[in-house]
Amino acid sequence: MKKNRWLVRAPSNIALIKYMGKKDAPADLGANLPENASLSMTLDNLCTFVEIQRTEGEGTVLLPGLPDISSAALPPQYSLREPDLSAKGREKVLRHVERVRSELGVAGGFGLALKTANTFPEASGIASSASSFAAITLATALACSEDPAAFESAWLSDPKLRRTLARLSRKGSGSSCRSFEGPFVEWEGEDAYPVASGLPELAHFVILISSESKAVSSSEAHARVKSSPLWPARAERRASREDR
Questions:
Q1: Phi/psi class of residue 109: alpha, beta or left (left: φ > 0; alpha: ψ in -120 to 50)?
Q2: What distance in Å separates the CA atoms of residue 192 and residue 170, rounded to the nearest whole number?
C-alpha cells in the first residue's frame, strides 16, 4: 500500500470445545484468562480487514468508511460490512490500540488512523471480536514497527512473534488469541498454540438466518455462567482432570 499506510486481515474462529468463565488474573498477567482450555477452528474468509495509517500529532482515531481492499484476495461472494460500534465499543478499540503501543514501547511520535470492516455481521454468534482485535493488534504492531518490511517477513516465519501478538490481542478480546494460527488452535492459560491434525482440509459453511446482534454478549455470558448452581461442580471436574 501507500507509504505509511497498510492493510491487514485476520480470521475469525469458532470454538469446537468452548471455554466458559474467566479467571481473576493477577495484574501482571493481564486480563481474559480462561477457566478451561478450548479448541477452535479458524475461519479464513470470515475475517476482519483493518486499514491503518500513520498521522501527524498524537492519539488514535477510527475513521468512517470501508478499508481499501483492492490489493486483497477476497472471494466474490463476500462483501465488506462496516461494524456499527457503540461508544463503549469504540472506546474499547481505541484503548486497545494504545495498550499495544505502550506494551511495544512505541507510545508517541505519531498518531494512528484506522478503518475496519468485517465480511460477516458483528455480534451475531461468529467471533467478530476475535478477528477484529487480532487484526487491530497486528495492524498496530505493523504500523509502529521501525521496518515494516522486516516485520512482515518475521510475521510469516517467526512463531514467537505471533505468540507475542496473540498474548497482546487476548487482553482486548480473549478468543482473539486463537486467530493468529490455524486451522486448529488450543488456548489454555496465557497462550494459544496450533494443534496438529491428521484430518484432510475441511470446508466450513455458515448459514446466516439473521444479522441481529445476539441478546447476551460473550463477556456477559462468561460472567453469568459463574452464577449457575452447576458452576462449582464444573470447576471441580476441570480441576480433577488437571491433577491427573
A1: left
A2: 10
> Which residues does 180 contact at the CB level (< 8 Å), separation at least 6?
10, 134, 162, 163, 165, 166, 169, 192
For residue 244, the model assigns a pLDDT of 53
Kindly report the number of other CB atoms within 10 A of residue 23's CB atom: 13
Q: What is the grid cell recorded at 230? A: 452447576
How far apart, in whole angstroms, are the C-alpha atoms of residue 85 and residue 168?
22
What count of Cα atoms within 13 Å lies in the side-chain half-sphere of residue 26? 4
Q: Is pLDDT at 25 greater than 60 in this prediction? A: no
Question: Which triple of cell numbers denotes residue 126?
Answer: 461468529
Please report the pLDDT score of residue 175 as a whole number.
93
Task: Label residues 141-170 b or e (16+ Cβ within 10 Å = b).
Answer: bbbbbeebeebeeebeeeeeebbbbbbbbb
CB 12 within 8 A of CB 131: yes
Residue in this structure with the C-alpha cell 461442580, named with its chain if needed: 233
pTM of the predicted structure, to 2 decimals: 0.88
Question: CB-based contacts of 231: which residues, under 8 Å, 6+ apart?
Answer: 21, 225
3-state DSSP assignment of residue 3:
coil
Judge whether 52 and 8 are in contact, CB under 8 Å: yes
Which residue reads 490455524 in cell numbers? 182
